[in-house]
Amino acid sequence: MSVRYISTRGQVEPLSFSQAVMMGLATDGGLLLPDSIPQISSAQLSRWAALSFTDLAVEVIRLFATEADLPTADLRAICQRSFARFGRPEVTPLVHVGGRRILELFHGPTLAFKDVALQLLGNLFEYFLARDGGSLTILGATSGDTGSAAIHGVRGRSGIHIFILHPHQRVSPIQERQMTTVMDANVHNVAIQGSFDDGQRIVKDLFNDLDFRKAYQLGAINSINWARILAQAVYYFYAWGQLSAGNPQRRVSFAVPTGNFGDIFAGYLAFRMGLPVERLILATNRNDILTRFFQSGLYGAGQVVPTLSPSMDIQRASNFERYLYYLLDEDAAQVGRLMAELEQRGQIAVPEVKRQLAATLFTACAVSEVETLAQIRTFYQATGYLLDPHTAVGFKAADSFPDAICLATAHPAKFGAAVAEAIGHEPALPPELLGLMERPSRCAVLAADTAVVKQHMIDTLA
What secondary structure letter does DSSP report for 436? Predict the structure, then answer.
């Protein structure tokens, strides 16, 4: 039976893969999910362990799209183009340093894990637009890395405009410049005077403005887009294959620094498909809404606190709704009620039996600034290997899991000030970042107000 896509809130007619990719956020305000999750046999897992990253991506994505909607030959060409720009042939190499296993996800064009999914998504957008016609206005919010990865995925592509909102002066200088120095005519950067959560709220407001959404053909690049989750699931299978040598009984744990629950949800998807995962170690910084949920069953936003790991400075995790759907036995009506309650009261709770069920797979830990700096410093002194602050959060959370695969989500040079605070000097810049701070930039600074951003988009596209 072919997979179709439904909403976590149950009010959307089933969609094809291409429709789900182009829709992004469901029209009922929910998130799109497959109506069933394909199951991988032990024999398939063993076979997948021998594949290259690109060939594995084709195998995984193939399960979620019909041949009529996305022919395998076209999918293969899309994957080959998407991963050709990575600096390592493995795309996401698994390295062993100081007794730890590190999955390096930062070898793409913008040196962050988001490149894996957003190079693919940019090519999918272009393919579907060329095939089906029309245009697309991409709208997204970023806490740092999504924006630059998305921009570099679609810059210069015909039929596409992209608007990226980032919190003014709350991303690293390099993150900001990776976005604002891209001068292609279809790229539009907006710094909002607020937090990432404000940007995410504005994006959802505009997607829920159905007349505006239809008039400008809005599309999503945040991890609310299912294709991003799917692409990120690939490297969980790939890392397992590198470690297991095809032994389908080999169970592994993953330590995942996360703010928006997208990267770790991709690991959860891989687990649901049949990947033998022991634990998913959820690592947050002081913005610990997700840690608090997995420890207490209560999901409630606090005040966003700026930290050394700004891409995780989030107090409303978009992808949590997808996990909630599965935790509540795929009861879309109940999810809809709880999300309405979250909007009204600012918090929701799940029964203790459900929290205990979640704890059988997830281990959650919040890591302080002092611990983050100490982790960077001690690992560097012991091994000479530099962790960026987000990866350091994941490392620290995995203290009790020495065999876990730690996801390295960004190149340390993107967060030079935090690294310098830890080890006394900034890391050397890789070639991709040389001269970045001297390039001309372009960015509008706007109030964190939906109407203001909407008018800016209308004026820009006029």
Answer: G
